[in-house]
Specification:
heterodimer; A: mainly alpha; Cytochrome C Oxidase, Chain A; two-stranded antiparallel sheet; 66% helix; globular; B: alpha+beta; Helix Hairpins; Immunoglobulin-like; Cytochrome Bc1 Complex, Chain D, domain 2; five-stranded mixed sheet; 22% strand; Cytochrome c oxidase subunit 2 (chain B); cytochrome-c oxidase activity (chain B); EC 7.1.1.9 (chain B); copper ion binding (chain B); metal-binding (chain B)
Chain lengths: 539, 317
């Protein structure tokens, strides 16, 4: 760990070129700045969608229904889903932390194609703007749910075409980022950085990038077909014209199930970085975790039809997809065991990122186990398309990916901005967040077991008590979120200066200054050992 | 408790698997959480200042690959075999045609009898042949733990054998438009004799389960023919005939009125005439009344029925 000379390059946050301020940011090809562009835009979308979720919960306290009509409610859950999935959870960790840290973690100056990287962000923003436009133009906000099931999505008079086109554009952002990361990992690893010396975050991003590259085109084609069908009535999905709505569901989920792994794999990668740093010992079972990422990417591409168990597929298809779903649960279980074992005989320095990483493990376990319940056919017949599903995927997407994103943000915050946040404020925000989260989403799962279908504007009276409990939970959750991001925002402007290596980490990002210099490394390092090597020098 | 009510054999089959997986899940979650907390406390920096540098353990990796695999496979097998039972109707089951449309359910029995709620005899297998007349819907009876999608392209089947007398909710589970959450009905389970009395009792036999709460359905014989047609096609779920505001514009005073409609994204002003009424019923998405959601499904009237509906609307002044 050499000391960096004071004559070193300026931080990436300082404008060095001829362009200054906002223009410099909007034309940057620096992977770190692009990471932050993604972060700021995504957090904006995230809070818009949180706000929509807040209103949806209020509608379930029936007194609020004078303000929001059934049609508006249907638009709200569609928009909440589209924003959260396509603008936050799918691109979240890879676009923010993948961009910022992948090159640093493998000892590179930037990604392979920096200009393409900036173009990806513009595709992302173009898609986002089109999605927003679809709310206010044409026949009004789409009301089909984010799944756009045909033939309803073909028949509705709302602005489905534009919303679907927005998702089509967003797909390009995802694919181009995938190509960029795959190439970067293959070509730009520092000398001596063999595959099994890469930090596990890189393995996670690598497997994610392959899914992005291989699965996203199928979504793009499917959505293009929906648009063609709406404008020209080509009759691929509409049974009145000889099409098959089941075909739409297959094509949609062939992408959208792997997309779940696009969302969760980088989260798992971030957790695998955080745990060794705070346990001060190598990760338990490095290769098992690396291979389980790759096998999740592989087997995860073969389980899509478990979203369609009630659609009337053949018994053989049901049996096979249920079986494969159970098998894909194994690598996730392997990861959980390895993470917990990483704490064994460590020397644990309990800090906010570790708290959120452990919260991730707990919530992800609940999300994973309830996923196994749905994989079992006899249970699925009951809970399919109910609030149980809604509760379950919020445990995975929010409790999993969301908490991991928060943990990663806390972990790398001092590196990214060179500032430290108030740890006390973060601990304080954890309590309402954790309590509210479980009230809201566990409550939803109970509602689902009771038989409450999803996407309902009004509910039958027997469900009302649980709806009140979950709604109150959502208030706690939002309070926690506001405290959390309030503390981080405050720290960006007024935080104390952070050390270069505040957590005592040993991966490459902790060997460079905080915030990192423009080209990351004074000199490209030569790697001689594995990524989590904590032993004292001379031992 | 009402909500975990098991009212059919399928409910027992589904719940058995659920409690098996639930039990395993609770054990696993408590184990993992307790271990995490124990390690964090036991190996804290204070208690254990120097970490042991352990890279992994092949034996343990094998154990926690094989043990979850075996458990997951047992869950798969149990879930699959019970599902086989839940999905394969016995040969002597009475076949009921279930038709879903935006936003109502209708049921047709083998002898041609029809109903808006599903009548079922206690302890006898009933096979559901589910189909949609428009978009995808979901046929869901929570108390039976039973669900099958209603597709417009194919007939899906499921079956049940009720084990309790009573009235149980039917709900739609696939988003199908503005009144998705009002697409409700009931299964009325009655003793077999009562069901037979209705089923074989001809047109005037009283509906079974009268003591149970039923949604009010007006007798079509007392209504004008146009109104009866609209009631049967759920038009009145969204349009009132007395000026009351609902999801769609009221039909009272509509004929001859000046109206603003959206054609695509452009606004047009027009007088409602007979030609417009016909277009609005057969192609409702082409010209949508301003201020109302573009949500109306296409009605499937015969030309003669359409004449009757239009002439009835013209009388509403």
């Amino acid at each position: 760990m050499s000391t960096h000379a004071a004559t070193a390059q300026p931080s990436y946050l300082v404008d060095t070129g001829t362009r200054k301020g906002l223009v410099a940011w909007l034309t940057t090809t620096d992977h770190k700045r692009i990471g932050l562009l993604y972060l700021y835009s995504m957090m904006t979308f995230f809070f818009v969608a949180v706000g929509i979720g807040f209103v949806m919960r209020l509608v379930q306290l029936t007194t609020f229904q004078k303000l929001i009509t059934a049609q508006t409610y249907n638009a709200l859950f569609t928009v909440h889903g589209v924003i959260m999935i396509f603008l936050f959870v799918v691109p979240g960790l890879p676009a923010i932390f993948g961009n910022f840290f992948l090159p640093i973690l493998i000892g590179a100056k930037d990604v392979s194609f920096p200009r393409l990287n900036l173009a990806s962000w513009y595709f992302f923003m173009a898609g986002a703007i089109l999605a927003v436009l679809s709310l206010f133009t044409g026949g009004g906000a789409p009301d089909t749910g984010w799944t756009f099931y045909a033939p309803f999505s073909l028949k509705t008079g709302t602005n489905v075409s534009l919303a679907v086109f927005a998702a089509f554009i967003l797909g390009f952002s995802s694919m181009l980022t995938g190509i960029n990361f795959i190439t970067t990992i293959h070509r730009l690893r520092a000398p001596g950085m063999q595959w099994f010396r890469m930090p596990l975050m890189c393995w996670a991003l690598y497997s994610t990038a392959w899914i992005q590259l291989l699965a996203t085109p199928i979504l793009a084609i499917t959505l293009a077909l929906v648009i063609l069908e709406r404008f020209f009535g080509i009759g691929i999905f509409d049974p009145a014209k000889g099409g098959d709505p089941l075909l739409y569901q297959h094509l949609f989920w062939i992408y959208s199930h792997p997309a779940v792994y696009i969302m969760i794999l980088p989260a798992m990668g971030a957790i695998s970085e955080i745990l060794p740093t705070f346990a001060k010992r190598p990760i338990f079972g490095y290769k098992a975790i690396a291979f389980s990422s790759m096998s999740i990417a592989g087997v995860g591409s073969l389980v899509w039809a478990h979203h369609m168990f009630t659609s009337g597929m053949s018994g053989t298809a049901l049996m096979l997809f249920s079986l494969l779903t159970m098998i894909v649960a194994v690598p996730s279980a392997i990861k959980v065991f390895n993470w917990v074992s990483t704490l064994y005989k460590g020397s644990i320095d309990f800090q906010p990122p570790l708290l959120f990483a452990l919260t991730f493990i707990f919530l992800f376990c609940i999300g994973g186990l309830t996923g196994v319940m749905q994989g079992a056919l006899a249970i699925n017949v009951h809970i399919h398309d109910t609030y149980f599903i809604v509760g379950h995927f919020h445990y995975v997407m929010f409790g999993g990916t969301g908490m991991a994103l928060f943990a990663a943000l806390l972990y790398w915050f001092p590196k990214m901005w060179g500032k430290m946040y108030s740890k006390k404020a973060i601990y304080l925000s954890w309590f309402p967040m954790f309590i509210g989260f479980n009230m809201l989403y566990f409550g939803m799962m109970i509602l689902g077991m009771m038989g409450m279908p999803r996407r309902y504007y009004v509910h039958l009276p027997q469900f009302h008590t649980m709806h009140v409990i979950t709604t109150v939970g959502s208030w706690f959750l939002i309070l926690g979120l506001l405290m959390f991001f309030g503390a981080l925002l405050y720290a960006i402007f007024k935080g104390e200066k952070a050390e270069d290596n505040p957590w005592g980490g040993v991966t490459l990002e902790w060997t460079i200054p905080s915030p990192p210099p423009l080209e990351n490394f004074e000199e490209i390092p030569t790697i001689t050992r594995g990524p989590y090597h904590f032993e004292q020098e001379g031992k | 408790m009402d909500w975990m009510n098991q009212a059919a054999i399928s409910a027992e089959k589904s719940d058995a698997v659920f409690f098996y997986v639930f039990g395993l899940s609770v054990v696993f979650l408590i184990f993992i959480t307790a271990l995490m907390i124990y390690f964090v406390v036991r190996y804290s920096k204070k208690r254990n200042p120097v970490a042991s540098q352990i890279d992994g353990h092949v034996g343990l990796e094998i154990v926690w690959t094989v043990v979850p695999l075996v458990l997951f496979l047992s869950i798969f097998y149990y879930g699959w075999t019970n599902y086989e039972y839940m999905s394969q109707a016995p040969r002597d089951a009475m076949a009921v045609k279930v038709t879903a449309r935006q936003w109502s359910w209708s049921f047709e029995y083998p002898n041609g009898k029809q109903s808006k709620v599903l009548f079922a005899p206690l302890g006898k297998p009933m096979k559901m042949e589910v189909r949609s007349a428009d978009v995808v819907h979901g046929f869901f009876i929570p108390s039976f733990r039973l669900k099958i999608d209603a597709m417009p392209s194919r007939t899906n089947t499921t079956w049940f054998q009720a084990t309790k007398v009573g009235s149980f909710d039917i709900q739609c589970t696939v988003i199908c438009g503005v009144d998705h959450s009002l697409m409700l009905s009931k299964v009325i389970v009655v003793p077999e004799e009562e069901f037979k009395a209705w089923y074989f009792g001809g047109e005037n036999a009283p509906e079974p389960g009268k003591t149970l709460p039923l949604p009010a359905t007006p007798d079509p014989k007392d209504l004008p023919r146009g109104l009866a047609l609209m009631t049967a096609n759920s038009c009145l779920d969204c349009h009132s005939v007395d000026g009351k505001p609902m999801v769609g514009p009221t039909l009272l005073g509509l004929y001859g009125k000046q109206q603003q409609v959206l054609v695509g994204a452009t606004l047009k002003t027009m007088i409602v005439d007979e030609a417009y009424l016909r277009r609005a019923i057969t192609n409702p998405m082409d010209e949508v009344v301003r201020g109302y959601p573009p949500a109306m499904p296409e009605a499937s009237f015969t030309p003669q029925e359409l004449d009757e509906v239009v002439s009835y609307i013209k009388t509403l002044k």
